[in-house]
Design goal:
globular; about 55% helix; about 325 residues; alpha/beta; single chain
Length: about 325
Amino acid sequence: MDQARELADLDDNTLRTRVKTSKIQIATTYRPILNALLAAAHPQTPEQIAVASHVDVDVVKARLDSITKADPRVLEATAEYLPDADVMIDFVERSMGVPISQANLADSNLVCSRLVDERVVPRHLSFLRRKLPPHLDAADHVNIVLPDLVEFLRKEYVPFVDSQNQGLISRAGRLNERLIRRAMLNAGFVEVTDFQMTGTKSQGDIIVRTTAGGGHPLSIEVKSYGARERLLRGLADADDPKIGVGFFNSASEFNDSRTTDFLGTGALAIYLPPTTLARVDAVARTRVNSRNSVFYRPLTQLTTDLLEFKARGLAAY
């Protein structure tokens, strides 16, 4: 497919530089994979690429990581393959047509979720179509007695799901942190100098440094859709000062009682999508932090507040 043509047309030395590999790997794996993509009329799964290129499927996946980092457009020539998180974020921005910012963080998360589903769900459909042909009709309707279904789920589908999750959950889980990171970079933050991705238990997922008198960095605990106990535990473990950020979709998780628990961790703020924040109980929505500032804040205010923290430290909250 044409998405792979620019890389495929590079000479070996230039291609080596782009994908950061050895000369022998260019000849034995990268060229065959790129040629297989070029020859295909439709997006190819890693398994299909492996067959066409005569390269082991696990090696194909590893090489696709390097190839799509070098040129994210190649992702469009693949199917049922979830790339490295930063490549996926590039793909999200291309799909949206605008840079990721605090104004569209919630929307970018939805686009990201849709793109992940488009790549993950077909893997499950392909597996089921391979395993259930005696029970499928032409319209993909399943006709199977319940005991046989339970047996199939226990012995075949659950192990398949577990194997998929081992490779996909870690990548998908990093996407929300990477969305925040991209919004910060686009807002003018400089990685390492102004902030750092950490992931250590006591520092949350991101720390933001302040130039105001050498104050302690701000720990950011990032979560996805459900706060549940994970956000509470994460905030309790993180160093002060700290905030929570997420794409939470259940306003009931932020009732007045739970808000008391969140405030008890010493957190300064929790950022939610505006649509979720609007549904939070009115009493809880007016609660303030230990510095008498509003506790629940919209994602559309996140990088503005973080820039303020960078400049003024705790005075931002």
